[in-house]
Design brief:
2 strands
């Protein structure tokens, strides 16, 4: 394994001051030479 990620979480507050959880307990193993990307529904993480 080249990179291991365990338990990543990410949230933010939207324009209505509501907490939006975008990542919850993400675990990921990446092999050397791999390419990994996380994108939202619009492709860039912003609706």
């Amino acid at each position: 394994m080249y990179l291991t990620i365990d338990g990543i979480q990410k949230s933010f507050f939207n324009e209505k001051k509501e907490k939006v959880k975008v990542l919850d307990n993400i675990n990921l193993d990446v092999e050397k030479g791999s390419f990994v990307s996380i994108v939202g529904p619009s492709g860039c993480g912003i609706d």
